[in-house]
Design brief:
By secondary structure, this protein is of the alpha+beta class. It contains 8 helices and 18 strands. The protein folds into 2 domains: about 230 residues, Rossmann fold (3-Layer(aba) Sandwich), CATH 3.40.50.300; about 80 residues, OB fold (Dihydrolipoamide Acetyltransferase, E2P). About 25% of the residues lie in helices and about 30% in strands. It is elongated. It starts with a strand and ends in a 15-residue tail after the last strand.
């Protein structure tokens, strides 16, 4: 099977700085792939190399099995949604969406039909004659999405398209992005620094660190089993402990039970300590416990106050071991 995008040993250097190093990656067809990591990890550079706006210093890029390393953007049949949306302010919504078709010399009737289909898909048919300044941020984002998909790209590239929206609208637009991708079946590559966005959208998460691949896989495989402390921290894990008999581990606070005096523990590893901070959350309390030279975050429904002596229960089946220099998997396996 021919894959939509393959990166073979791709490296990009800027002066003396290596932004992406020896990256091997296969983007699965018809799936949503998320390039994830903190600022400066190389994710946007990788996307721009796929798009053709940057050339690799070394390595190869294959699109649909064909060599495309030096191919200019306009010959790659890729749709791209930029962080700023990059809409033409003097053109109507319909003419913005039609731009790529006009560049491809599509006929007038075909252009009208496909623009109509794209606007209907993103729910903006009624705003076809508006200009970008008359639209909300979410509507502008959907215009940019319609413009990218109307050309029927082999791959849809999304460069942090939701980062300029407020929190509530970002959540709504995630689902709209996913709906469009599922309805069209287009292969999509998303750049984001938002772990929630990647968890909700991605069939394949690709986590980068300093230009290198740190871990990849389906979110259901990566989230419960981070391959390193870096991945765990990036995915929101907060407890990093050294536990006798287990070594360096991480565990999410919701799996840690803080026991008040007199509470009988079920099986698991117990640590003794002092409650340092108690935060009421409605259904339970989040407790920061000082246990020796370590701080453990856990939850409780019991009446616990700062200064109370407590015990912390760490269920063995929830402890994730974090060996140093954990190997990065060579393939994604089941991307679902």
């Amino acid at each position: 099977m021919v894959n939509p995008v393959e990166l073979d040993g791709v490296t990009r250097e800027f002066g003396g700085v290596t932004a992406v190093q020896d990256l091997d990656l296969t983007v699965p067809e018809g799936k949503f792939t998320a390039l994830l990591g903190p600022s400066g990890c190389g994710k946007t550079t990788t996307l721009r190399m796929i798009a053709g706006y940057l050339a690799p210093t070394r390595g190869r890029i294959l699109l649909d099995g064909a060599e495309a390393t030096r191919l200019p953007p306009e010959r790659r049949n890729l749709g791209m949604v930029f962080q700023s949306y990059a809409l033409f302010p003097h053109l109507t919504v319909a003419k913005n969406v039609a731009f790529g078709l006009r560049m491809r010399k599509a006929g007038r009737e075909e252009t009208r039909r496909r623009v109509g289909e794209a606007l209907e898909l993103v729910g903006l048919s009624h705003l076809a004659e508006r200009r970008p300044r008359e639209l909300s941020g979410g509507q502008q984002q959907r215009v940019a999405l319609a413009r990218a998909i109307v050309i029927r790209p082999s791959v849809l590239l999304l460069d942090e398209p939701l980062s300029n929206l407020d929190a509530r609208l970002r959540v709504q637009m995630r689902q709209e992005l996913l709906n469009v991708q599922r309805e069209t079946g287009v292969t999509a590559v998303l750049v984001t620094h938002d772990q929630d966005e990647a968890l909700e959208l991605a069939d394949l998460m690709v986590i980068l660190r300093d230009g290198r691949l740190e871990q990849l896989g389906h979110p259901r495989d990566v989230f419960p089993a981070p391959a390193s402390r870096f991945v765990a921290e990036f995915l929101g894990y907060e407890n990093f402990l050294t536990v006798p008999g287990h070594g360096p581990v991480t565990i999410r606070p919701e799996y840690v039970r803080v026991l008040a005096a007199g509470e009988e523990p079920p099986g698991g590893t117990l640590l003794s300590g002092t409650a340092a901070r108690v935060t009421y959350r409605g259904t339970d309390c989040l407790v920061a416990v000082r246990a020796g030279d370590q701080t453990v975050l856990g939850t409780t429904a019991a009446e616990i106050r700062p200064g109370d002596e407590v015990r912390v229960l760490l269920p063995g089946d929830r402890l994730i071991h974090l060996p140093e220099n954990a190997p990065v998997p060579a393939t994604a396996g089941d991307t679902r």
